[in-house]
Design goal:
The protein has one domain: Rossmann fold (3-Layer(aba) Sandwich). Helix content is about 45%, strand content about 20%. Pfam families: adh_short.
Length: about 210
């Protein structure tokens, strides 16, 4: 059994997804900006083979270095999950141009960097799964930057499939429509099951978006 890499691991979906794949016998590579979040995630996966590396997903050099370190220890991953996002309420006129660029850098560009760095190696190895945590199935004016970002990663999944689907890469997004909380409609453990189902699908049955 291979490994999963989660970029943007945290106490909700990120650690639940890592845990779901670890239960299937996989190793886990964890990337987050916060050392505290990394420690909490690693502690939650105690007993598993885990590499945790601090990196901001908007910092291309550090993100690539973090991915390289995980690959050096665990090999090319079978599954990559991009879960990083700037989740904030903002409307037209609330943010400066730079603040919009900063949000886009995390919400979309970090996913592009991750895919560009890892997917070609996955293709060379024979295939794999690349899943992005989506959201905002309908744009909301009160969540401008997040709505734009989630629309961006939905399009990115389509383009990843166009470029790499024929080479064995299953690109998909899990679109989460509301606030994640244990015991709620959007329980992180229930959500994590969908990531595993996507990875387990044979190519003839690939789904490219799950809306929850």
């Amino acid at each position: 059994m291979g490994g999963v890499v989660v970029v943007g691991v945290g106490p909700g979906i990120g650690v639940a997804v890592a845990g779901r794949f670890v239960r299937e016998g996989m190793s886990a590579g964890l990337i987050a900006r916060s050392e505290e979040k990394l420690k909490l995630a690693a502690d939650a996966l105690a007993g598993a083979e885990v590499v945790a590396v601090a990196a901001d997903s908007s910092d291309e050099d550090r993100l690539r270095a973090a991915l390289d370190r995980i690959i050096a220890e665990h090999g090319v991953p079978d599954v990559v999950v991009y879960n990083a996002a700037v989740i904030q309420a903002d409307a037209i006129g609330d943010l400066t141009a730079q603040q919009h660029l900063d949000a886009w850098a995390v919400n979309v560009v970090g996913a592009i960097t991750t895919a560009a760095h890892v997917v070609p190696a996955m293709v060379e190895r024979g295939g794999g799964t690349f899943i992005i945590t989506g959201g905002m199935p309908q744009p909301k004016a009160g969540y401008l930057s997040l709505s734009l970002g989630k629309a961006g990663v939905r399009s990115l999944v389509t383009m990843l499939d166009q470029q790499y689907g024929g080479a064995g890469i299953h690109a998909a997004t899990v679109t989460v429509s509301g606030g994640v909380a244990p015991g709620s409609v959007w329980d992180p453990d229930d959500i994590a099951d969908h990531y595993w189902r996507l990875h387990s699908q044979p190519p003839t049955e690939w789904t490219h978006e799950v809306v929850l």
